[in-house]
Amino acid sequence: MNLRKCVSCGKRSDKFDFIRINRIKNKDSSFTICVSNIGNRRYVEGRTAYLCSDLSCFNLAKKKSRLEKNLKCKIGPKVYDEIESFINKI
Ligand SMILES: [Zn+2]
Q1: How far is the CA of 29 from the centre of ligand 1 (A)?
Q2: Coil, strand, or helix at residue 12?
Q3: Would you give per-residue pLDDT tens digits along the chain (90 residues)?
Q4: Domain locations in the chain?
Q5: Which of 50, 62, 64, 68 is most buried, taking the most CB atoms under 10 A from its CB?
Q6: How many angstroms is it from 52 CA to the middle of ligand 1?
Q7: Among residues 60, 56, 65, 62, which one has the least CA distance to residue 82?
Q8: Which long-range contacts (CB under 8 A, 24 or more apart) does 40-49 make?
Q9: From ligand 1's centre to the CA of 54, what distance in Å?
Q10: What is the distance between the alpha carbons of residues 14 and 4, in angstroms, rounded to a whole number?
């Protein structure tokens, strides 16, 4: 089984249990952060971080800048809002 690890709490599980946060490089070398559900099986290029679909996990990751460290790029408040509302919709 191909296990993934949550960047926040370190829980290991099947990748379908997590939400996926992707860093996609733009032509001007800036980055776009995408949040998606693995269930749709869409392949996304670029660095990927996995996070439990759980607000407490998200809040901890935000507080400790875990996603920024993992994806090696800045994550603005708008992107955090986007991830938060994504989790709320699950
Ligand atoms: Zn977690």
Answers
A1: 30
A2: strand
A3: 679 999 999 999 998 889 999 999 999 999 999 998 876 666 677 899 999 999 999 999 999 999 999 999 999 999 999 999 999 998
A4: 3-89
A5: 50
A6: 4
A7: 62
A8: 44/20, 46/22, 47/22, 47/23, 47/71, 47/72, 48/20, 48/21, 48/22, 48/23, 49/7, 49/20, 49/21, 49/22, 49/23
A9: 7
A10: 6
